[in-house]
């Protein structure tokens, strides 16, 4: 499946959007915002059409949970409506692409409760399940096909999200991020984190996102690699700390991104979802698909 790139960085740096707290979900509140999101998704649908592959549409809801929503003035009820609206929009796009894309999967995107670049503390599973349940329940009510949690920094929050998704009756995927040394921000290895989550019940599959392929390569071990079904890479080779301080977009070296990503394929026997993360746009994702 083709999936999208770095939604927030694309909108901020290429479209001049102000996204306080890196939150794209307020765009769903206006016709102009929805049109911009549609234009964004159209670029990835075109890649899926050209490659003859399925398309995974992920909702613009990475920040649409209560802590972040409250900072932006959204009540819990308003957040639930927004999360449902995000899935409804993607359902409409599924119809839009039906004639040109073989299959479209609609996913509800969840982000960490804290800051993925500055994880001040690690959530335990019970706290995470309670916190993320309202957003995941809204996805289920709206008919999402799956929920995927992106940029997670530790196993505890991942376990809680899996519990909340299972309770809501949704398939679930967990995507960890890694630092330049290939370890999670929690300090755990990717293999350790995957093992911990799997021992607690486990998601349908794992991904890795928000890291350059060179850093993801350092994270891979034989046991963990078999559970990874998707990769969404950063364009830049910089660390999270460096990217967080940057005032200009680092779009990376496109050739290096594609060639290093190619090195991951023999290490990931079940890789089936390929897209991008921070600093990437449709050009980068097309390159990852050999276009």
TrEMBL record:
Residues 1-291 form the Hcy-binding domain. The keyword Signal does not apply. Keywords: Metal-binding, Methyltransferase, Transferase, Zinc. GO terms for biological process: methylation. Zn(2+) binds at residues 210, 277-278. GO terms for molecular function: metal ion binding; methyltransferase activity. InterPro entries: HCY_dom, HCY_dom_sf. The keyword Metal-binding applies. Its cofactor is Zn(2+). This is Homocysteine S-methyltransferase. It comes from Kribbella antibiotica.
């Amino acid at each position: 499946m083709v999936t999208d790139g770095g939604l927030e960085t694309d909108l901020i740096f290429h479209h001049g959007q102000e996204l306080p707290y890196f939150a794209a979900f307020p765009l769903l509140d206006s016709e102009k915002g929805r049109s911009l999101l549609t234009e964004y998704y159209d670029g990835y649908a075109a890649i899926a059409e050209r490659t003859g592959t399925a398309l995974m549409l992920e909702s613009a809801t990475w920040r649409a949970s209560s802590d972040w929503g409250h900072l932006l003035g959204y009540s819990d009820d308003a957040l639930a409506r927004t999360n449902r609206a995000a899935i409804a929009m993607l359902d409409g796009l599924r119809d839009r692409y039906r004639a040109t894309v073989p299959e479209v999967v609609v996913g509800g995107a969840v982000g960490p409760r804290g800051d993925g670049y500055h994880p001040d503390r690690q959530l335990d599973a019970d706290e995470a399940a309670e916190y993320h349940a309202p957003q995941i329940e809204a996805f289920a009510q709206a008919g999402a096909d799956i929920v995927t949690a992106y940029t997670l920094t530790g196993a505890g929050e991942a376990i809680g999200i899996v519990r909340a998704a299972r309770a809501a009756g949704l398939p679930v995927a967990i995507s960890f991020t890694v630092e330049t040394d290939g370890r999670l921000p929690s300090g755990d290895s990717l293999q350790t984190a995957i093992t911990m989550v799997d021992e607690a019940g486990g998601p349908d599959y794992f991904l890795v996102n928000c890291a350059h392929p060179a850093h993801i390569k350092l994270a891979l071990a034989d046991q963990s690699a078999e559970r990874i079904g998707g990769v969404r890479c950063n364009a830049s080779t910089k660390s999270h700390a460096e990217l967080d301080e940057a005032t200009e977009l680092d779009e990376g070296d496109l050739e290096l991104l594609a060639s290093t990503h190619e090195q991951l394929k023999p290490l990931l026997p079940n890789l089936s979802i390929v897209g991008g993360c921070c600093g990437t746009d449709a050009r980068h994702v097309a390159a990852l698909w050999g276009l």
